[in-house]
């Protein structure tokens, strides 16, 4: 599915889009390694089958923002411990596209997907020192203490 936001479009990915997801995810890990719970060296070792598996619909939704090339990404995956929670992770926008509404559009698309698929809550972790991200999520209705924030969607 493609959604237009001015000159930017959002695209929900399928396993056939694995190269797009891989390339942007590795770019994000190289650019801002402290923002993620994974490491560039780890994910560089993934083979095509692993990247395709990450994009399988049973693992939720992966969305990229394109303007026209990929400039941001986000994922929503089923929470490991809570059946009613979609976990938002991997939110990242290329530095030259920040503060242009790309992050907001990406998060809104995951929340919309959660509603479309009957999830009750969207939850995320934001590192304590990442005030810019925390402000974004609060603007979008997320709340919470410490690093965990959530948004009821049903």
TrEMBL record:
Protein known as: GNAT family N-acetyltransferase
Source organism superkingdom: Bacteria
Species: Saccharothrix mutabilis subsp. mutabilis
Xref: InterPro entries: Acyl_CoA_acyltransferase, Bact_Acetyltransf, GNAT_dom
Pfam families per UniProt: Acetyltransf_1 (PF00583)
Segments forming domain N-acetyltransferase: 8-154
Keywords: Acyltransferase, Transferase
